[in-house]
Amino acid sequence: MTRIFRHDPIDFRSLPPAIRGLMIANVVGFVVGLIVPDMHSLFGLVPQQVLFQRWIWQPITYLFLHGNIWHLVFNLFALWMFGMPVESQWGERDFLKYYFLCGLGAAAAHLAMAPHSSVPVIGASGSVYGLLVAFAMLYPDAVVYLYFLIPVKAAHMAILFGAIEFFSGATGSTPGVARFAHLGGMLTGYLYIRWWWVAKIQLKAFWRRAMSAESEPAPRVAPRRAAKPPAAAPDADMAQVDRILDKILSDGLESLTDDERGIMHRYSERNKPS
């Protein structure tokens, strides 16, 4: 199905709850950072504190702090621009999981590149760059106006931004910007979609084939009047199916409970080709 991207103005009330909540959290974090002097050093990403003092909350809390208003506005605009179509495709649960996973990947990249640094890194850019990758992989031919002027395909824009971040980080041309954190968010998003997401799709198809083979119809016998069939079990909720598939990928098929196997059986029956 062809997706149409409209040029509607930003309407805060019509935003999905996940994106609206992230925007509110970022604005609140920015305002509190202006008021509380030590906010950035306590809740920003400081590699020395994370690795040697075990301040394990920082790889999450740094995502909600920003250095100035333009940093905040750019990330909120990119969250709206790329997050809306991604969230509409994946749903709230998978969108939020992906957002924070990219943020953690960005934090891990920065920790690996500068483990002894005592300078706080702040901002949601790692997650936002991950959303750019997701948008480019979902809609590679969608046209985006770079800097509101230059039309470019989403896939080409993601490659261009990745190249800029790599060469800027390698040359150290912008020491005040955590370029490798941005790259970490992009790489995490790419690997997640290419490996985990595709593996879930393949696992769904495999499960349907396996369950279809197990439930081959018995040889036909002479027809007779059948008793009233029992009420059909409710269809498996897709959120439950995705959760169970995640569990299979991480812990193996043997980790499923009887109830979870029943949910997957009903899912395979519902999607079995007629």
Give a description of the structure.
The protein is mainly α. It folds into 2 domains: about 180 residues, Rhomboid-like fold (Up-down Bundle), CATH 1.20.1540; about 40 residues, no CATH class. It has 11 helices and 2 strands; from the N terminus they run H-H-H-H-H-H-H-E-E-H-H-H-H. A two-stranded antiparallel sheet has the order 1-2. Helix 7 packs across helix 9 and helix 8 packs across helix 9. The protein is globular, with a radius of gyration of 23 Å. The two termini are about 25 Å apart. The relative contact order is 0.09. About 5% of the residues have low confidence.
How many domains, as an integer? Answer: 2
Q: What is the helical fraction, as a range of percent?
A: 55-70%
Largest sheet: 2 strands, antiparallel
The ordered string of helix (H) and strand (E) elements is HHHHHHHEEHHHH
Give the second-level CATH assignment, the architecture of the largest domain. Up-down Bundle
Structural class: mainly alpha
* Uncertain residue segments: 226-236
How many distinct helices? 11
Instruction: Quickly name the level 1 CATH class of the largest domain.
Output: Mainly Alpha
Mean pLDDT: 82
Spell out the CATH superfamily of the largest domain: Rhomboid-like
Number of beta strands: 2
Q: How much is the radius of gyration in Å?
A: 23 Å
Q: Kindly report the CATH topology of the largest domain.
A: Rhomboid-like fold
Distance between the termini: 23 Å
Beta-strand content estimate: under 5%
The geometry reads as globular
Give the strand order of the largest sheet, numbering strands 1, 2, ... along the chain. Answer: 1-2
